[in-house]
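Objective 1b of the project was to move from sequence-level analysis to a structural picture of ligand recognition. The entry below was assembled by the postdoctoral researcher (A.K.) and checked by the PI before modelling. It contains the amino acid sequence of the target and the SMILES of the bound compound, pyridoxal-5'-phosphate.
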Amino acid sequence: MVKSSIHRPTKATVNLKAIEHNVKWLKSQIDDEQKIYATVKADGYGHGAVAVSRAALQAGANGLAVATVDEAIEIRQAGLIQVPILVLGLTDPHGIADILHYNLTITVGDAEFFRLAYQHLEDNDQLSLLSLYKLDSHLAIDTGMSRIGVTTKDAVVTFAEEIKAFPWVNWTGAFTHFSTAGGGPEEYIEYQWQVWQELNEALPESVTERHFANSAMGMWHNEKSPKSTIIRFGIAMYGIDPKDSVMGDEGLKSVEEASIAALKPALELTTEIIHVKEVPAGTSISYGATYQSSEPEWIATLPIGYADGWQRYYRVVPVLIDGKYAEVAGVINMDQMMIRLPKAYPVGTTVTLIGKNGQLENHPSLIAKRVGTIGYEILTSIGPRVPRVYLS
Ligand SMILES: *Cc1c(COP(=O)(O)O)cnc(C)c1O
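Corresponding predicted holo structure:
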């Protein structure tokens, strides 16, 4: 594990009150019977999985969702031992002992997982584990994302037959994932919905958790019925719109804009000037000498770079200082970058890379649009070297 660098002023400040606010607001928008699973994969979208999990549960979330078994184990080891944790990705059957021991709910796409897991336990003299624990699992159903899961009704029927050979398995849920609710053709949502309903007919009644909603489906398509029994809220919980719309000046026009207005971004990425100087006109700055000052300019150095997740292609993103923009001067280095100041500021002045500074805001969605990606990637790119500091 990379240790975070606490002896420099670069930090990501996570406002857990914003997470709680977002979870409560999302909860107020859905039915009482629907559960919220806080999606905290990728270290809580870069915010810190354990802290976000605690805040989300505090605010009323019923469970957690992660991508990998190891992410789930981190949360269990932090002391969250009761809450259901669903591992959304497919897992290696060799990890069966840990999966049982940590009481994780796994996702499978076929019954082969159980055969291999049993074999592994037998080979390692661990079959006694099966008298101690039951394995909770959800079946992934692929309705059009073409990522994981069964694609046909026949495959669901086959799975339902085969799983009977594994009495140590609790088959409690089935889920799918929509590929265009957060952007793309709306008709495709209808297509996936039809497939979902058709494949649901093949599920035994005992499979009671049937869920299909992420943030976009949960916020904008929650009229679909039968409802998603669980909503796996991710990006919205962090205060970001799945489509990266940000509030314009024109007021609320749609249900989508109403949700954007209600959500509060939870993370700010800040640093401080560590070096500053006035350079004469014609001074080359940074690797490759691609930038030359056109007049005498105040140039400041910041202790953050692409190894912290402030990618080289963010060169087009101005940072904020004293409520003003400052352009990046020259290429972004691994650990440092230079900016052109609007006027002289001393060493120690705060610089905001993500978040608000005065009247200005470097919103993750605006940064994403500027560099041609999505808010999700801006947040999850912030590397482990950047300490997370929590406000609660
Ligand atoms: C990541 C993920 C989610 C959460 O998606 P958001 O768009 O962040 O709400 C939900 N379900 C699955 C299967 C996922 O992989």
